[in-house]
Amino acid sequence: MLFTPWTILILAAFGLTMWAQFRVKGTFSKYSEVPVSSGMTGAEAARHLLDSNGLSHIPVEHIPGTLTDHYDPMSKTVRLSDPVYFSDSISAVSVACHEVGHAIQHKVDYPMLVARHRIFPLVNLTSGVAPFLLLGGLFLKISGLFLLGIIAFSVAVLFQVITLPVEFNASSRARDLMIKMGYIRNSEEREVKAVLGAAALTYVAAALMSVLQLLEYIWLFKRDSDD
Ligand SMILES: [Zn+2]
């Protein structure tokens, strides 16, 4: 395989990504054992929070799996997994309110979410071809092809970077609303922060790794065009 001055950094970022994923599972299961003082389940909190924000038309559905929870902007649906939908734990209510946070962002046209939705179709297209363009350009030594690969890959990187403020904003909305609506007490905010913070770190690590990869490709392009 190719070894460049960037390899160590990229491997370190990969390690951070793995660690962040391991940690999010650990934190989630730790606070799955801690019941929330209001006794609400994830599904109840999501329903109540949607209704109080004028989003009664958005359904809360149950989906299989763990940590598969998401807000679907196409069908305008909040989907919660087994350990979130039925559970009254700190983890469950935090994740449920985070997903409602995305639905509220959608309603108020939060600019970063709008940008994310705009580039999403492009990301689908470019992420499929980027590896072929990059590998083809590198091994066939066609710099124009490699440059096209860099451009295609940078769309995916941009998408991951834009995801960061979207995720942080959904979590901070969730935290504030959970206290305001009385789903948690002030004393439970630290636990909620731990659950949502662990999830945010997985996005940060993944984005960091993509940015480093992009920098490596640009470095390779410059090195080869200087030859
Ligand atoms: Zn999210």
UniProtKB/TrEMBL annotation:
<feature type="transmembrane region" description="Helical">
    <location>
        <begin position="119"/>
        <end position="140"/>
    </location>
</feature>
<keyword id="KW-0472">Membrane</keyword>
<feature type="transmembrane region" description="Helical">
    <location>
        <begin position="192"/>
        <end position="215"/>
    </location>
</feature>
<dbReference type="InterPro" id="IPR007395">
    <property type="entry name" value="Zn_peptidase_2"/>
</dbReference>
<keyword id="KW-1133">Transmembrane helix</keyword>
<feature type="transmembrane region" description="Helical">
    <location>
        <begin position="6"/>
        <end position="22"/>
    </location>
</feature>
<feature type="transmembrane region" description="Helical">
    <location>
        <begin position="146"/>
        <end position="171"/>
    </location>
</feature>
<keyword id="KW-0812">Transmembrane</keyword>
<protein>
    <submittedName>
        <fullName>Putative neutral zinc metallopeptidase</fullName>
    </submittedName>
</protein>
<dbReference type="Pfam" id="PF04298">
    <property type="entry name" value="Zn_peptidase_2"/>
</dbReference>
